Amino acid sequence: MGGRAIPDRGALYEDVAGIVSRSHDLGETLDNVVDLVAKRLDADVCSVYLTEPDLAHLGLAATMGLDPDAVGRVHLGFGEGLVGNIAAEGRAMAFEDAQADPRYRYFPETGEEEFCSLMAAPLRVASLGAMEGFSIGVLVVQTRQPRSFSDSDVELLSTCAHLLAPVVMNAQLLSVVSGSDERRSEMFEQLGRAGMLSPPPETERAERNVRVEGTPTSRGIAIGGVYFLGDAIQFDRIEYEPDPDPEVERAAIRRAIERALTELHGLRDDVGARFGPDFAAIFNTHIQILEDKGFAGRIEALTAEHGDALEAVREVLDTYAEMFQAIEDPYFRERGVDVHDVGQRVVARLLGVRNDAQPMAEGAVVVASHLLPAHFATLETDKVAAIVSEHGGPTSHGAIFARALEIPAVTGVPGLLEAARAGETAIVDGETGSVFFSPDDDLLAEYQKAQHRALVAVEHLDALAGRPAETLDGHRVRLTANVGLLSDLRLVERHGAEGVGLFRTELLALVHRGFPSEEDQEQLYEQVAHTMSPRPVTVRTLDLGGDKAIPELDFEQEENPQLGWRSIRLSLDELGSFRSQLRAILRASAERNVRLMVPMVSSVEELRRVRELVDETKEELGARGTDFDPDLPVGVMIEVPSAAVLAGVLARECDFFSIGTNDLTQYTLAVDRGNERVAHLYDSLHPAVLALIDRTVGAAQRADIPVSLCGEMASNPLAVPLLVGMGLSELSGVASAVPVVKEIVRSLDRGLLADDVRRALACGTAREVHEIGAARLRAAGLLDHPDIGDWLRRSVGD
Ligand code: PEP
Ligand code: MG
Fold first, then answer.
1. Would the pLDDT of 6 be above 70?
2. Ligand 1, residues 710, 713, 715, 728: which to mutate, most atoms within 8 A of Cβ?
């Protein structure tokens, strides 16, 4: 190995990402990647094997270093040879002496007998089982001289494979759907999907209170006029005159495709600036579809054949729609929506109209077939009162957008497009998932009242956002917000939070459905730190696993996922990804307002190991001259009972605590936080949970380190007096609750709270603790508060 240059991981990553983002031809992309990886890793060979349509074999698809004639000629079964084994097992491996391994198999076509060492990483994508993934290929590196590949080499190769996987997957899906004419004619027989082609419904109707139900997706109540969106381009209603000259027609569709592409590039930048890089990435898929020769080429070919560009787009879209619809896996099916969206955009360009050509009135209830991310970029979101969609679920990208923008939304409403009439009044209840069309006066009045109460309260309180959260006797409590996306920062400002008390980094991974790249993470954390500066930002390392699985990781079906491979346990096993996250956080710490927080710590060893890794990362960055905060505080989340019990020891070895009561309650009371059958037993005000919080606060105070609380409990009005009384210096909750919590803090006298805490800790039941909290709110006069009284009375059950 002596003398071999250490690869510059950042540069390799960036270059592979660059090739991938410019990809429009799979073969060319693979050739460029193998060339680059071979050079940068100083290897004699780099090859890519791709899974064949039978899903049981791999074929050599590109190589730099093996006999180029072997491309397309070498086929091996899953599980056959080292490469086949890596595909089957779905994990990267390295072999110093590949031929010594009993699984090695020699393929004479390749001329690979001269190569000694081998390292390979699978290209993984999500699969039918939500937890597993499958390999759609393998990226392989070989060297003539024996080489012992380090963990970080393996990591680096895995990252490259990870970058490459979506391109391969999209290309393969697209090639299947733009495949044989026979397959297509079968498809054409099944054309004419209802919703897409149906005429817009009439406005007039006699019925009142027409009710449809869906999944509550984004909270809040809205009332407004129905506005149909997106699928407004009804192909069979368009009067389209093709040009008699097929060449002119062909030029027209080519121009439309180019314009749609330009528009998509613009959207990607625009959405990136507004919502963050995580969402911008969504448009890469759209761009890739449009740049795919199968898609665009097919449209052009059909235009030449029929002499009618609109008909050509329609045919291609219908074929694709049919194919994608038949796919069982929701992840892949979602790609069908993307294709549809892209097709609509091309037609809009062809016709010279925008998808949302009709003017939208202020306060509109947007009714759509799907809730697409693109809608948020093209709609004037300030005019949107609510969004309702016939299809999709609450975890789609569109749903995430709606929540981030605080737009009430209901998704997956069967019969919605049929039920709604353009222009009629609709009520959307984002809390329950109910949607009413043409409400009568009584129903309207009921919802108007509820909506008004909530709005007035929020407005009043936001107007007072600048006031400090200080008790009557002058004790300051820092009120911060829990955040997961860049767009949430807007709410942090609006509701007057004093920083970010918990930045949940796994949301980026969930949006991506895979480990986010180091570069994406870095951009996101830096932007959050920069926007908040000088206010503090506590970045929590990935808290994946449990109920938050992503396809990138091989989550096995666990008997008890909440007690299994999750959070810091997983990060410490996936060191490559963890190190890149640490690098990204450290780089963001250059703003000097970042703290690093470790979730789910259950032992002192875990904390020590993390500190070691942080120190190593600092050294690595220091050697490169990268700026970071040398005193970056490293804190522990206290959310496992063992950590609370050992708080005294942990406090001596970390810089701060944050109590995660969502999990602390689940683990202390042995009540699954996501199981509605035992939900009545889940209560963070249980005296056992309070005892652990109190113990943690005491340990922090003795060690003189700050202690905050970042579970949902921080926004629970009944809990606030007790938490302030126990001495928590920071409460971090949902941004919109900050004003309410502040009003409570400002009405409390700490002198009176000590006795409340003492009595609460002596209680036997959660109910008794509730009463103590309620009595304090009552005594402070808060139940008569003009803005929050209504809400608090409901919380205390008055
Ligand atoms: C907690 O457990 O209290 C917490 C804040 O973390 P999460 O809800 O993300 O598990
Ligand atoms: Mg937690």
1. no
2. 710
